[in-house]
Amino acid sequence: QLIITMAAPTLEAIRYSRGKLQLLDQLKLPTETVFMDVPDCDVCWTAIKDMNVRGAPAIAIAAALALAVELDGAKATLATAGDVCAFVATKMDHLNTSRPTAVNLGEAVERIKKLAASLDGSGADAVEAVIAECEGMLAADIANNRAIGSFGADALCAAVGKPAGAPLRVLTHCNTGSLATAGFGTALGVIRALRETDRLEHVYCNETRPYNQGARLTAYEIAFEKMPGTLICDSAAAALMAKGNVDAVVVGADRVADNGDTANKIGTYNLAVSAAYHDVPFFVAAPISTLDPSTAKGADIVIEDRPATEITHSLGKRVAAEGIDVWNPSFDVTPAALIAGIITEKGVVRKTASGDFAVGKFVAEVTGSDAPAPKPAGPPGFVALNCDTVLDYCAAKPEVAAALGGAEGRAAWSSKEVGDGNINFVYIVGNGAGGAIIVKQGLPFVRVVGESWPLTQERVRYEAEALMIAHGYCPQHVPEVHLYDAPMSVIVMRYLEPPHIILRGGIIAGTVYPKLAAHVGEYLATTLFGSSALAIGCEALRKARQAFGQNEDMCALTEQVIFTEPYAKADNNHWTSPQLDDAAAALRTDSELKSAICSLKRRFACDGAALLHGDLHTGSIMCTESTTFVIDHEFAFYGPLGFDIGAFLANLFLAYFAQDGYEGDRSSQREWLLACVKETWATFERRFVELWNERGVSAGNAGLTPAALYDAVAGAEGDAAAALRAHQAAYMREVLTDSFGYAGAKMTRRIVGIAHVADLESIKDQDARAKCERRALACGRRFMLEAKELSIEDAVAMAEELRA
Question: How far is CA 109 from the centre of its chain?
Fold first, then answer.
C-alpha cells in the first residue's frame, strides 16, 4: 500500500498506469489517505462490495481498469481473440455481482463484453483493444463530469430564479465528487462548477447514515478544496430548508428508470419530500450511462440490502440493543414527480406534459440509438429473475450469500431452472463446492399459460407462511425456509441435495420408495391435526384463518380448473383426442357427477377445518428411498382435511393406471402403488387419532372435543372413553368420504382439464395412453359417486377390477 499526505496537489480516487491500478481506500477517510493495490478482478470485486471504492461511475471505471490490469498480466496465455472473449466474459460477469443496483457497472460490463465478442485475430491484438477501451473510460468520465457540471450549474440558477450572477446555497447528499467518479464529480461537480463561476455562496452536505459518506467523503472534498461548506445531520435537512437556507438540492444517482424514478443512496427520498414541501428545486445529476430506459419505473429496481452491523455497530463496537431486528437498504427510490430535472453530460432531461421524464426518448436522441423498450413492470420492488440475475440477487442478500459460503465466492456460483410445475420458476443456486439453495419466484401470471392469465403474487406470501407453519409441525418432512422476500416474490429455502428427486419422476422410472406412505401419512396427520380446532381450539382457529387470509386467487383457480371446467365447455380443457372425445362429452352431460362435484366444491369453499397444502401431488414431493419432503405450498388455504389426502391418493391411482402404458413388467410397481394407498391412509388415521388422544380433549369450551364431554376425570358422564372412540370413528369416516370424493375430482381434471400429469402424458402411444386414461376416469367417477360406501380396501379393489 502507498500512503500519501493531505498535501496531494489534486484529489483523486483512482490511480492507473498500464498494468497497475490503485484505489483510494475510502473506508479510511478522512483520518487516513491510503491507496490500495488492485492487481486483479477478485480484489476489485471485494473492494466494490466492501465499499472501499464507491459511487456508481467510480465502481464501473474501477471494474474496467481492474480487468485491464489482469488482462495485461495474462496476455501471454491468451492466444486468440476467442480466448480473450471468454476471459473477459468470466471476469466481468463476476464483477457485475458486486453492487447490482448501480447501472453504470452493468453498462460497462455489457459494453466491454460486446467489444470482446466482436474481435477476431490474435490474442495480443484483442487484449490491446479491450485495454484501450477500458482506459478510454477513465478520460471520458472526467470530460462527461465537467459537462454535467456546466449544464447543472446553469439549470440550478435558472430554477432558483435569483438575479443573474447571484450565488446559491446548495444541499447535497452522499458523495458524488472526485471520490465517486474518475474526477470532478456529478452532483458535487455541479457545485464545483458553480464555484468556478462565482455562483456558489455555500454548500451543505448531509452526513449520509449509516456509512457516513457525506461526513467522511463529501466533507473531506469540501475541506480539501476550501469550499464554503457545512456538514449537517440527515435529520436536520428539513429544518435547514425551513429556515430558508437552501436554494436548491442536487444529488447523484445509481439508476434512473425510464419514467425518471431515481435510485440513490438511502435518505435521498426523504430529502426530496422535504424539498417539495419547502418549494426547493430538487435535481439529479448523473451520466447517460446511469440512465436505464429498459427499467420502466423505480419499483422495478432491485435494492441492495446491506449488513445489519452497519447500523448496530460503530467503530467495531455494538451501539444497538441485542435482539433488535435491522432493515438496512443501501438505496431508496425518489419518484419522478419530486424531481425538477435530470442533469447529464448531454443536457438536462425535462419533464413531459404528463409530469414524467421520457428518459428513453432523451437517450435515443442524444446518442443516435434506438430507445430500448422498458421491461414489463411488476408490482413495487419486483424484478423477474432468470438464470443469470438470480446469481446477482443471491450475492446482494447477505443472509443468502452466507448460505452459499459468502459473496466473495460468487465467481464459482451457478444456477439452473428446474421448476416442473404450472405456476412458479424454481432455481437451484450452487456454490461450486457442494453447497446449494433453492430460490423460488412467483411471477404475476400462470406459468403454463403466460401473461394472458394474470395471477397475484400474494400467493408467494401464502406459500412462505404455509411452509414455515408446516415445518413447525413436521420438520422431518418439510424443508426449512431461509428467506421470504415479499417485494421480489421470492422464497429461499433448503436445497434437497441428490439423490432427492421429484417423486413423480421416480415413479415413472419404476422406482419403489418403501418409506413414502409412512412419511406422507405422518405429514398429513401432523399438519392437518396441528392446524385444526381439535388441536388449537375454535377461537384460535378463527384467528389463524383471519391472519393467514383466504388465498383467494389460488382458491378461485382451483374452483375453476377442478370443480367447474372439466364438466363444461372450456377453452382450457384438452384430452387425448379423438380417443377420449366421447368420455369428455359424457362428463358434460352427467347429472349425477355434476351434483357430486358441486357438493365437493361447497365443502371446499365452506369447510375451513385446517391449513392445507392445497395441491399435494407427486410433483410436490421430493424423496429418496429413506427420506420424504413436501414442497410447493403456494395453494395453501384453510379447507377440508380430505382435500389434501384425496389429492395425494389421486396421484397414486393415476400412476397405477399409467403403468400399463409403459414398456416392460411393471407389476411390482403397481403392487407398491396400491400398497401405498392403503398404508398412507392407515398411517394418517392412526397418527391423527393418536394426536387427538394426546392433545385433542381440551379443557374449557374452546376445543372440538371438550373434556367436559369426553373426559371422566373432568366430569363427563357415561362411558366417556367409548363415546370419544365412537365420535372419532365417525369423524374419520367423514374425512375418508371426502378424500375419495376429492381424489375422483383430481383424477378427472388431470385427464380432461388444463394441466395433466407426466405419468400419463409420457405414454407416447396415444391409444395406449387413452386406454389408461379411460380406466382412470371411470375410477374417478366411481370415487365421487360411491364415496360414502367405500373403504380404503374397496377403493384398491375397485382400481384392480377396472384394470382387469
Answer: 23
254 is catalytic: yes
Report yes or no: 752 and 567 within 8 Å, Cβ to Cβ: no
Q: Do the Cβ atoms of 268 and 173 come closer than 8 Å?
A: yes
- Report the relative pairing of strands 14-17 and 20-24 from DSSP bridges: antiparallel
Cell 437517450, residue? 363
What integer pLDDT is reported at residue 261 of this predicted model?
Answer: 95
Q: 3-class DSSP state for residue 423?
A: coil
CB 688 within 8 A of CB 732: yes
> What whole-number distance in Å separates Cα of residue 66 and Cα of residue 108?
12
Give 291's strand partners.
Answer: 256
Encoded amino acid at 793, one letter: E
Q: Where are the alpha helices (DSSP H) in 75-122?
A: 81-95, 103-118
Tell me the C-alpha to C-alpha distance, in Å, between residue 128 and each of 61, 123, 574: 17, 9, 59
Q: Is 379 strand, coil or helix?
A: coil
pLDDT, tens digit, 9 for 90 and up, residues 362-386: 999 998 877 666 655 555 567 778 8
Catalytic residue chosen out of the listed positions 25, 254, 305, 759:
254
Task: Please say whether the beta carbons of 703 and 533 come within 8 A.
Answer: yes
For residue 204, give the nearest of 188, 189, 225 by alpha carbon: 188
Percent of all residues in the chain with a pLDDT value above 90, rounded to a whole number = 76
Return the C-alpha cell found at 566: 372439466
Cα atoms in the 13 Å half-sphere on the side-chain side of 370? 3
**String of DSSP letters for 621-654:** EEE-SS-EEE---TT-EEE-HHHHHHHHHHHHHH
Going by DSSP bridges, is the β-strand pair 229-232/262-265 parallel, antiparallel, or unpaired? unpaired
d(CA 478, CA 628): 8
Residue with cell 452526513: 207
- Give, to the nearest 10 degrees, the angle between helix 720-752 and helix 591-606: 120
Distance CA 644, CA 612 (A): 6
Say how far apart CA 70 and CA 566 lie, in whole Å.
62
The pTM of this model reads: 0.62
Cα 267–Cα 268–Cα 269 angle in degrees, nearest 5: 90
Q: Who's near 146: CB < 8 A, 6+ residues apart? A: 184, 189, 193
Residue 33 is predicted with a pLDDT of: 87
